[in-house]
Amino acid sequence: MTTLTRDADAPPNTLEVLTTIITLDVNHPATRSILIDAHHAHRLTMSGYAHLLERYDFFTGIKNGHPDHRRALNILYATHGRPDGALQIRLQSDVAPRLANPECDWWRHAIHPDHPPVTKPWKIPASGDIAYQIRANPTTTVQGRRRAITHPDKQLHWWVSHAAKAGLR
To answer: Which domain holds residue 42?
Structure first.
């Protein structure tokens, strides 16, 4: 299993990964097709919405619907219709992202020190350029219990230190 280098102050047996929250407009036809696919399959995986993204190598082992994607991803809160008409998909990976991978453009932009790692709007190229938001939260797993890093200073430190370790500026 590939993991990010553990911070020096992190407890032992800590796996540091990302929780990704993707928010989509439920009224868009592409989002409706996702809901239908998730309903019939009783799961929502990377392959369920991969057609929305031309390049989506967010996590190691996920590129092009890798057969291990079900083992690598945990869908925490797959389909949640929100009052504001948005669908939230929460993904948590047991495999750390390859931040230095040239195909991880979106991650590299999201972790740029000049852009706070909170929420960033993107355009989905293959779906009529609908807007969606992707937010990545650093997450640690200590002795089987997963916790998000929620303090803004600690989040920023996590992003900047891991970006530096990946050779990003």
So the answer is: 14-161
